[in-house]
Amino acid sequence: MSITKKVTILAVGLGLVTLSACGSSDGDPQGAGSGGSRTVTLVSHNSWAASKDVIAAFEKESGYKVKVLEDGDTGSAVNKAILTKDNPQGDVFFGVDNTLLSRALDNGLFQPYEAKGSETVLPELRADGDKHRVTPVDTGDVCVNYDKKWFSERDLTPPQTFDDLVEPEYKNLLVTENASTSSPGLGFLLGTAAKYGDEGWQDYWKKLKANGVKVVDGWEQAYNEEFSGSAGGRAAKADRPLVVSYASSPPAEVIYADPRPKTAPTGVAEGTCFRQVEYAGLLSNAKNPEGGKALLDFLLTKEFQQDMPLNMFVYPVREDAQVPEEFAEFGPRAKDPETMEPAKIAEHRDQWVKSWTSLVLK
Question: Counting C-beta atoms within 10 Å of the first and last residue's C-beta, which end of the chain has fewer, N or C?
């Protein structure tokens, strides 16, 4: 959901240094009195990022060394974790969102653990009832972003709703991600299903296809190679001024620009947003479950929650966590995003994706 996920990808146009996993050494710290492993391994999609000093503080306080394994985009990471659940790569998995949550739970990916601080999570973001197999960590909105300059130069009003996107004036302008391989792509599909209903979304996508929507595999390609409004897209001379991304993408374009502009070069079509929530959980058969529990507790601390926005460009789930002023100014949460109950996603997701693939890609 993250979120723009892995904002360091913007390095294509901004010259950033990638935020790598902190404390990734396999070596255990000295003085492990219990004789057990003092390394706790976090498995994630390739959008994990955290400040070194925040990770270091956890390592010092807990005595555990954090190792991070990034394993592709959300869909492939979840699928691989399910396939290896009997002999998992790590102790905690981070990054399964509400679009894929049921797949992880139905396949027994996680064991129960109620993380400390769970009572601070916004009630509407909690999931899994009293089973506590997953812990909400962050939230964000998948939305169409637009290139302000492109539309201004043509004296054309940017689209603001799903309905707008199928109008003739926006023909051949939108790029989105494959719903079968990309988390934002799937989120966008679910947003249209929430908007137009179980049957109506297919008619909508027929119109969108006829209006020239372009589909690529993942967010990195869509945002940094095809979208004219991003730093990477400008460097690549991209020609699509509309892209499925995140409501938090505009502040990323401001924060990492040099010199920093007074306003974001991109905007958000608020009538196209779908809310995502990302979760973490203690993996079944984790080799270091105690370390995994400590890490889950850490992910809900105020220190980590307030560190997330400028690293992964997502919103915290704690009610009392503050967000940077740039988020409030350039990337506020959507006021009325489309949402869908996890149970309904579980019931329809695979068939919807199959139908979408047949309808849009063939």
Answer: C
Stated length of the chain? 362
Residue 185's nearest CA partner among 239, 222, 228 is 222
pTM exceeds 0.90? no
Q: Which of 147, 183, 171 is nearest to 269 (CA)?
A: 147
Which residue type sits at 166?
V
Q: DSSP string of 75-133?
A: HHHHHHHHHTTTS-SSSEEEEEETTTHHHHHHTT-EE----TTGGGB-GGG--STTT--
The two beta strands, 39-44 and 92-97, are: parallel
pLDDT tens digits, one per residue of 305-326: 999 999 999 999 999 999 999 8
Phi, psi angles (nearest 5°) of residue 312: -115, 0
C-alpha 179: how far from its chain's center?
Answer: 14
Render pLDDT for 145-192 as a digit per residue (tens, 0 to 9).
999 999 999 999 999 999 999 999 999 999 999 999 888 999 999 999
Residue type, 154: R
CA distance 272 to 187: 10
Tokens of 44: 């994630």
In order of 189, 202, 224, 262, 362, the CA distances from 193 in angstroms are: 6, 8, 27, 36, 20
Res. 6: pLDDT tops 80: no
3-class DSSP assignment, residue 37: coil
Question: Which three-class secondary structure state does DSSP give residue 147?
Answer: strand
- Residue 223 has what DSSP assignment? I
Which of 174, 130, 236, 187 has its CA nearest to residue 352? 187
Beta bridge partners of residue 138, listed in sequence order: 278, 316
